[in-house]
Design brief:
Largest sheet: 6 strands, antiparallel, barrel
Number of strands: 16
Number of helices: 4
Oligomer: single chain
Strand content: 25-35%
Radius of gyration: 31 Å
Helix content: 10-25%
Distance between the termini: 118 Å
Strand order of the largest sheet: 2-3-6-5-4-7
Number of domains: 1
Shape: elongated
Length: about 375
């Protein structure tokens, strides 16, 4: 009787070893597939974030640089009126011929509005400024050059500040020191006219040997040690200039370009590669590999400036040191970029960090010179 009432072994048993192994194999396959999808999605998200970050940094840098360069010569300050700038525009090409690094540029340009005229200004050498920025008095007391302009039409140096009253002197350093500048009718500036401070701005780029590397540096003091990093992940700045040296109102033709036709080879130096419409000019087609002296005249003979900025991945904080870059072993696309007369080589040979992402942005700006 017990034999008939006892449950069978099959009814009480669990999975067989074979069944268990099959189930585990199926679960492993599904898990690996899910992990692969998640890992791929994560890599794509990281790559997209890095690319967006590079593009954002390059755009920010371009907006800042082009804004200052566009206003070069505003107020028509005289030569040597500001520390760090001999002329309205002072450009340095990295090398004659093919560049091995970044260019730099210094321009006399707008710093900021420091207030507005309280009363109409028609004569004399003092003005009263409403809402005067506090750093004006501090800089004058500290011996710094403070150059102001009224709507870009009347430029003077501030020699003293008493409350909101500014005493103005001749901004030309070749003239007798502390010579008051007297403005007389019919020139007149109404109340609420903008009082704008001018400055010399210098742009450079930190190379791979700096710690941290790849930063756009901005300097308004004339002293290289006082340069301030304003945008990270900027590897290169390249500049080319379209010039009207004969003042005929037309951009000068340059050797190597098409005669009597304004094209991309009329920017100098023009020995780098450039594209005009559907025509691609290889590096070396243009025959002007150095900057002519006429472009640094005061006022400048430059009418257009072609600015190229190259952005690069920003390394994580732990690797933000010289000669290092982002360790992305999964990125295998070419990183070579040609920026004007500087070729940035592919970084596929990095054994530790893998390849690096780069993005380039080019913009042509008009130089706002009131003497044009």
């Amino acid at each position: 009787m017990n034999r008939f009432n006892m449950p069978s072994r099959r009814a009480c048993g669990g999975f067989t070893l074979v069944e268990l192994m099959v189930a585990m194999a199926g679960f492993s396959i599904i898990s690996l597939a899910a992990f692969s999808v998640l890992s791929s999605s994560q890599r794509s998200a990281v790559m997209n974030d890095q690319t967006v970050q590079i593009q954002r940094n390059v755009r920010i840098a371009m907006d800042i640089v082009s804004r200052d360069i566009r206003m070069a010569g505003y107020g028509n300050p005289p030569k040597n009126a500001l520390s760090g700038c001999v002329d309205h525009l002072n450009a340095t090409d990295n090398a004659i011929g093919a560049d091995a690094g970044s260019d730099s540029i210094s321009v006399m340009t707008v710093d900021q509005q420091v207030g507005t005229l309280t009363n109409a200004f028609t004569t004399g050498n003092t003005i009263t400024v409403a809402g005067l920025s506090s750093d004006v008095a501090a800089d004058v007391t500290g011996g710094k050059i403070v150059l102001i302009t009224l709507d870009g039409l009347y430029t003077a140096r501030v020699s003293a500040v008493a409350g909101s009253l500014l005493t103005l002197i001749d901004p030309d350093p070749t003239h007798t020191a502390n010579t008051p500048l007297t403005i007389v009718s019919p020139m007149s500036f109404p109340a609420a006219t903008s009082v704008i401070r001018l400055t010399c701005v210098t742009y450079t780029v930190n190379g791979i040997g700096s710690t941290p590397p790849f930063q756009l540096m901005r300097n308004t003091t004339g002293l290289a040690a006082n340069a301030v990093a304003i945008v990270d992940g900027i590897e290169d700045l390249q500049l080319a200039y379209a010039i009207d040296a004969d003042a005929d109102g037309k951009i000068d033709d340059q050797l190597g370009g098409v005669a009597s036709t304004f094209d991309c080879l009329d920017f100098v130096p023009n020995n780098g590669a450039c594209t005009q419409g559907t025509t691609v000019y290889a590096a070396g087609t243009g025959l002007v590999s150095s900057l002519p002296a006429s472009m640094s005249a005061t006022p400048t003979k430059v009418r257009l400036i072609r600015i190229t900025l190259v952005g690069r991945q920003i390394p994580p904080l732990a690797k933000n040191v010289a000669n290092n870059t982002w360790g992305d072993l999964n990125y295998r696309s070419s990183s070579a970029i040609v920026a004007e007369d500087h070729t940035l080589a592919d970084l596929a040979g990095f054994t530790v960090s893998g390849n690096v992402r780069r993005r380039a942005l080019t913009r042509i700006v008009n130089v706002r010179d009131p003497n044009i």
